[in-house]
Structures are given as structure tokens and as C-alpha cells.
Amino acid sequence: xxxIFSGVQPSGNFTLGNYxxxxxxxxxxxxxxxxxxxxxxxxxxxxxxxxxxLREYTLQLAAMYLSIGIDPKKSILFIQSQVPEHTELxxxxxxxGYIGELERMTQYKxxxxxxxxxxxxxxxxxxxxxxxxxxxxxxxxxxxEDQKQHLEFTRDMAARFNKKYGETFVIPExxxxxxxxxxxxxxxxxxxxxKSSPNAGSYIALLDEPxxxxxxxxxxVTDSEGTVRYDKENKPAVSNLLTIYSACSGESIDAIVAxxxxxxxxxxxxxxxxxxxxxxxxxQEAYKNWINSPExxxxxxxxxxxxxxxxxxxxDKVRKNMGLVTF
Length: 327
Ligand code: ATP
Ligand code: MG
Hints:
The protein is built from 13 helices and 5 strands.
């Protein structure tokens, strides 16, 4: 049986990139193994946040998980900070990893570049992420392509720890989609779409109104060729839009390309906006109910209790193997 763990940060407006690259698959995986999904709010603190903002995004993300189809009867859904073992193992992972390894991480380089203030947490983020995964004996971790390097780090930490202290952790496998694993920004196809981007035009948020989606897609950069075809190397922007089209409609890229033969980007973009709106409308409808539902906190409390039971058993083993004295 697969043991599946993944998390999303409550750090902004959840994007189509988060959905296509990771969250959409969380739903299907519920029938393939034991799924544990987290709202990783401690990770969001690596970039300074207002308390009110963090609180709001945390509940929004909980409602979003449920709106896309995460079923609390099948999966554990919880807030990371409600299970204190994450910070405890996070520290132990900081003491397992090396600064050189952490400094090589591209997310750290990207997110610290040009910033006046860079927190220590931004550098040690992968140690906390390793803890998140290893606490639950995860065998499989569905993530977007940008998290591949952090997953490698997690595997290295698990192996290093096991070698030094004896068999303790399961070594997890990343599950990264070849197609849709990296959705690019609408304004710059060399950058990945990110919910924390200061430019709202660079992403489609899952909660964007239809009119906003139409506008954002209309403004999305393309190229001067004028032909709708898939060529990631030479036509990254149009290829990205085709990927979004295919992921939202379920149609193959070939079928989509064939339909737009001899037509320009205008027609393509108009239909793409419709396809995206159609995919997001049922999620937005469900969200309206979940965000106001008193059940939300009950689900999260129950999830934290269930997660805590697994995490505390792992920590007992870790403390014993590491020589952290307990009575
Ligand atoms: P932030 O900018 O705050 O880091 P983010 O959009 O990168 O936000 P995360 O919470 O860091 O979102 O990541 C949640 C999941 O979404 C991860 O599995 C990540 O790999 C995936 N993901 C993020 N951006 C993309 C993208 N552009 N394409 C595909 N998957 C993505
Ligand atoms: Mg991210």
C-alpha cells in the first residue's frame, strides 16, 4: 500500500500551476493509498507574512483542498503547525544536512535573490520539508517539478540518517508529472507560475472570476509566429498555454493543435479561457460552501489528531535511535 504525503503553502492565491502540477492528482491518489495532505503554514513563514494574512490563507487552503475533492474520510487533512513533531524533526534534519547542500537549492537562490531581508528559515526550508515527509513514512510524494531538488535532499537525509543511526526512515519516491509538472508564468515563460508572485497577471488563481481569467489569458505573452503548435524549446509561451488547455479539457495536445490549424492566437485564447473557466467553475462553487462551513475546523482538528498519532510514533523511534534521552 502506498503511503502518500504532500503539502501546499498557504502563501497566496492558489494557482492553476499548483492545481495542474500537484493538487489535481491528490484527488485520484486517494484511491491508490493512504493519503496525508498538509497545509504547510510553517513553510510560509520563510518569507515574512502578516498574521492576519497567514490565518486567512490557511483556512482558504483547507477549503480549497476540500473543494477540489479531497475527502476527509479517505485522507488526512491537517495544518502543519498543529503537529509539533514537524518542528522537532525539522531541527534534527537541519543537524543532518549541510549548509553547502542547502545553499545549492535553486528555490533558495530564486527566492533570496535581490531581497533586502532573507530569513534563516528560507535556507533551512528543505530540512523542514524532509521532516514533513519522513514523519509519515511516505513512500510516494506527488509534487511539481520545482520540488524535485528538495525531494532529492529528503532522500539523502533519510539515507544519511539511516546509515548513521540505523534503519529509521522510509526513503520516499517523488511523483512528478512529465506533462504539467511545471506550468509557466503567463507573462514570462522562463519562470514558473507562482502564487507568491507580486504580479497577479502572471498566474491564474483558482478563485479568479471568469472575467479576470479571460483578461489574463488575453494578455498572456505568446510569440510572433502566429501558429498554434507545441514546441517547448522555440515556443515556450504557446506550449505552456497548450499544456494548460490540455490539462483543463482532458484533450490531447495533438487534437487541440489540429483544431487550430490555420487559426490565430485570438481564437485559441478565447477558447482556452472558456476551457479554464469550465474547469474552475465547479471548484469555485464548492468553495463557496466550504469556506463558510463549520465542518472545516472539525475536519482540521480530526486531521491533526490522526497525523499526530503517526508523527509521534516516528519521533519515538528517532529520539531513541539518536540518543535523545527520554524517560
Ligand atoms: P510559492 O511561490 O509561495 O512558493 P507556489 O506556487 O510555488 O508558491 P507551493 O505551495 O510552494 O506553491 O507548492 C505547492 C505544490 O505546487 C508543490 O507540489 C509545487 O511543486 C507545485 N507547484 C508550484 N508551482 C507550480 C507550477 N508552476 N507548475 C506545477 N506545479 C507547481
Ligand atoms: Mg513554491
